Amino acid sequence: MIYTLADGRNINIGEVKSVSSIRDYGDDPNMIGMCRFGFAIYMKDSTTVRVSEHYHYADWVEVRARLNAVRTEIMRLVEQSG
Hints:
By secondary structure, the protein is α+β, with helices and mostly antiparallel strands. The chain has one domain (2-81). Helices cover 27% and strands 41% of the residues. It contains one helix and six strands. The chain has one helix spanning 60-81, and strands spanning 2-4, 10-12, 16-19, 23-27, 34-43, 48-56. Strand 1 (2-4) and strand 2 form a beta hairpin. The radius of gyration is 13 Å and the shape is elongated. The N and C termini lie close together (11 Å).
């Protein structure tokens, strides 16, 4: 099964080995006043797909909830697939 991430990248759910927890990557040096949350999807072929989103320090709850929903959905699909 192919899952499409919000940024348009596709991942094959059957090839997912594991999914990391959500992490706060801290300040983004390329964007003043912005930080990043994200998680990693580890594939069976040893590649890593990083999923992250920028947030302003006052808006972190919404971004974390959105990433958590994506992560939970991916993990649910992985469990269903095998």
